[in-house]
Amino acid sequence: MIATRIIPRLDIKGPNLVKGIHLEGLRVLGKPEDFARYYYENGADELMFMDVVASLYERNSLQDIISRTAKELFIPLTVGGGIRNLDNIKSVLRAGADKVSINTAAIKNPDFIKKAASKFGSSTIVLAIEAIKQPDGKYFAYIDNGREYTGLEVVEWAKRGEELGAGEIVITSVDREGTGIGFDTELIKSVADAVSVPVIAHGGAGKLSDFEEVLKNDVSAVAISSILHYKAITQFQSQKDKLEEGNLEFLKSGKKYSKIEALTIQEIKTAIASKGILTRN
């Protein structure tokens, strides 16, 4: 049995860690380096950094953050947002990333996955899929933080991505992302059953029981944000007055998002291990 990975996902806008709901309404939570170190020290298996405005500017601006992080934290780093070509991948990997997450560029030019996997290896290429459920119950892939419809059915696109060389797939339920109402297990299971590469579930975690439910499926990892961020944020309250840009209203108000149970990585690992699910130490 392969151990389940717990992967904190850090959405970044400019210099700040941000968090939204349905990938929108981004609130500033603090400095990504602070949260990354906290998660590393508390048992994160990997870290995922996403430049959430990269689609707007058509570039990834995380190299400096990744370079600083890679020098101090010795766990795999996945970087996504604005990865458009092979040179972008090379730059991010040189900065210290271990893997790249590709969504928009892969959908606009599927052959990009094949070329990237051939040059850098399939284990380096993560296909990111942002899924939205349609009124007829089908799931379709979107780009630009769930704003732009692509016409691609999610399972078929996941299968094609694997065939082209993607070594891993992260599937995000845009409908549930940031809500705390639980993973979309129907969506996750449909993708996990259709491919043989590792699948990472993302979007909706709000309480401990959500993890047991989604991990009953053939899922290799969970990428989580809110449930960890709203716990970690208490460690950095003294620094909130140093932040100068972005939507700071939530952070400075001291409010809590009541629909989400704030948890640590170790609390999650202990809970799922008690259910017989193997985790990494």
Task: Describe the model.
The chain is of the alpha/beta class and 281 residues long. The protein has a single domain, classed as TIM Barrel. 35% of the residues lie in helices and 25% in strands. It has twelve helices and twelve strands. An eight-stranded parallel barrel has the order 1-4-5-6-7-10-11-12, surrounded by six helices. Helix 1 packs parallel to helix 3 and helix 3 packs parallel to helix 4. The longest helix has 11 residues. It is globular. The model has no long low-confidence stretch (mean pLDDT 88).
Tag the structure with descriptive keywords.
single chain; 281 residues; alpha/beta; TIM Barrel; 8-stranded parallel β-barrel; 12 strands
Which CATH architecture is right? Alpha-Beta Barrel
Query: How far is the N terminus from the C terminus?
Result: 15 Å
List the secondary-structure elements in sequence, H or E.
EEEHEHHEHEHHEEEHEHEHEHHH
Q: How many structural domains in the coordinates?
A: 1
In the predicted model, the low-confidence regions spanning at least 5 consecutive residues are none
The total of beta strands comes to 12
Helix content: 25-40%
**Could you say what the CATH topology is called?**
TIM Barrel
Class derived from helix and strand content: alpha/beta
Characterize the largest beta sheet: strand count, sense, and whether it forms a barrel: 8 strands, parallel, barrel
Tell me, what's the shape? globular
Query: β content, as a range?
Result: 15-25%
Average of pLDDT: 88
Report Rg.
17 Å
